[in-house]
Amino acid sequence: MQYRFDVKRFLPRRVMDAITAARVERPEIILASAARRKRRPQPARAGKLNMLACDHPGRGVVGTLNQPLLMGNRQEYLGRALRVLMCPDFDGVMAHTDMIEDLLVLDYLVQEAGGPSFLDDRVMAGCMNRGGIVNVAGEIHDRFTSFTAESIASLGLDGGKMLIRVVDDDERTLVTLGECAHAVTALSRRNLLAFVEPLPMKGKPGAYSTSYTAAELVKWTGICAGLGETSRNTWLKIPCIPDLEPVALATTLPILLLGGPAHGDPLPTLQEFAAGIRCGSNVRGTMVGRNVMFPGDEDPLSMTAAVTAVIRNGAQPEDTPRIMEGLRDAQIDALARYL
Hints:
This protein is α/β, with parallel strands linked by helices. It is 38% helix and 15% strand.
């Protein structure tokens, strides 16, 4: 029988209900959980950083794998994010406010019930500009509607992430650029990381699509690297394209590769990352979402372990199936045993 990961076994509905009950009855545990979380002294272990990007619903992106509402199902979305964080060698997570707070609430509840923290020693980043709602007029202006540098610092997070979707004939691109420059400065003044993601686009309102070329990415890598009053804490999040080497040569800043829409098949993603990490010594890891959370029928934990092996250990993508098979449904009761 073909394997198929079942998120409900890992994150039963009663765990979701426990989060809601805590939000209603004890909202203060969000701050308490954040205050007691143990932060790592340096974000990148051995110079590499693999982060989960789970900020899609905050911009109205709720479909994947030909299922129009799959990422809008919080049980699916949160459960799969938590499976990624079950991988001990994976570094952390980037998300918008309610998703970060769901994680903080759940971490508190699990520890309260005698379980281990899954957020200690992780890198946690808050998504800052989710205001470019998909298919809404003016969406190219990615307004800052989520975390601020101040709220990121108050929650003890490690940094903030921002997006610049680029449309050359839409001046709102430059409005977003200016706002991102202020955000980089605000984060750096608090000694927090700034993750900056340029995404060249094409098309028209209601029908935008990505337009990744080496020429465009070289241009915008240089622009984004120079945002703010300092770049000392800036990391760039760059699409993983076949011709990535000139993009890596456009900056000395560390680069994280993004994965884009889910393939539904782990191998192409792993091959892309293996090729990308060889394109420059400043390509230091990934900030990937759908391709680890929704890897077809595979367990997100298995997929995450495979990505980690490729990025950290130089494993060949073709050699990772045995890694994935060995981790399917591992610790499937890691939450249910406590809640």
